[in-house]
Amino acid sequence: MREVEVSQVPVELYKILKFESMVTSGGEAKSVIAEGRVLVNGDMETRKRKKIVSGDIIEFGQERIRILLK
């Protein structure tokens, strides 16, 4: 699992997928979230603007990241 530090929380889920290069664009991020292909803390998440806070774990494809506050 990779750890990702952010300077402020909360951060919207689709932005994390985009900024961490888990997808190629914001549009793709919104699409994969809407399709139910992203897990947050082990649960399927379909809200693209879901607020992510420090300690949350995001899974998509073969990647798994933990969000930490700087």
Main features:
single chain, Structural Genomics Hypothetical 15.5 Kd Protein In mrcA-pckA Intergenic Region, Chain A, alpha+beta, two-stranded antiparallel ribbon
Give the topology.
Layout: E1 2-6, E2 11-12, H1 13-19, H2 26-34, E3 38-40, E4 43-44, E5 51-52, E6 57-60, E7 63-69
Parallel strand pairs: 1-7
Antiparallel strand pairs: 2-5, 3-4, 3-6, 6-7
Q: What is the chain-wise order of helices and strands?
A: EEHHEEEEE
The CATH architecture comes to Roll
Radius of gyration: 11 Å
How much β-strand is present in the residues?
35-45%
| CATH fold assignment | Structural Genomics Hypothetical 15.5 Kd Protein In mrcA-pckA Intergenic Region, Chain A
Counting helices, strands and paired strands, the structural category is: alpha+beta
CATH class: Alpha Beta
Shape: globular
Task: Tell me the name of the CATH homologous superfamily.
Answer: RNA-binding S4 domain
Please bin the fraction of helical residues.
Answer: 10-25%
How are the strands ordered across the major sheet?
Answer: 1-7-6-3-4
Short description:
This protein has 2 helices and 7 strands.
Please give a structural write-up:
This protein has 70 residues and is α+β, with helices and mostly antiparallel strands. It has one domain: Roll (Structural Genomics Hypothetical 15.5 Kd Protein In mrcA-pckA Intergenic Region, Chain A). Helix content is 23%, strand content 36%. The chain has 2 helices and 7 strands, in the order ββααβββββ. The chain has a 5-stranded mixed sheet with strand order 1-7-6-3-4, with no helix packed on it. The chain has a two-stranded antiparallel sheet with strand order 2-5. A hairpin with a 2-residue loop joins β3 and β4. The mean pLDDT is 96.
